[in-house]
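Board notes (copied after class):
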Amino acid sequence: MKHATTQALYDYWNQLRGSRPAPERSEIEPGDIRTILGDTFILEALGEETYRFRLAGTRMCAAYCRELKGRDFLRMWDGKDREALETMLQAITSEAAAAVVGIEGRTDRGQTVNIETLLLPLRMRNEGYTRILGSCTLMEKPYWLGIHPVVHQSISSLRLIWPDEQPAFLRKVSAVNEGHGLPHPTQLGYRRVGHLTVYEGGKGQTGA
């Protein structure tokens, strides 16, 4: 995690969850993170292909020059990047994984900006991990911010951070690998998600 906003939100979420995979949505208090609210958002998982913005901070909306509330997060992506994010979001909502995504945003004039996005699972009672708390932070503040919208974006890096419990897909892979003498994916430290290399991290391993 490179930006202070990303680290601050992760630390807040991590403190709330304690020994659990993720905190409850009801535990999030906007006043506790008021200094970074402009960069934060909440997604609602409505299915494997629909993740709607329930809230989006003012600084995030300014980067895209539009209100994001009610829009689908995945519609901001195309091709293989969208496929990778679908897989990643499923890991978040089914396995309580967290993710840090490096993004290159581009305007229709060819201007670029580096963005760091954090995605953290939240539990809804009787629903599971159907909410995602996130932050979207520009690594620099270009002069055109708020004037020319980011209209295209691509993934430059992606890191998954698993809860203490081993995720189901790793348990399945491990059982197969043990019979063939192959190394466990966590020993390798990375795996493939679509066209991307995803570096694994456990609780407290937040470097990216």
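Comment from the instructor: The chain has one domain: 4-201. Confidence is low (pLDDT under 50) at residues 166-191, 203-208.
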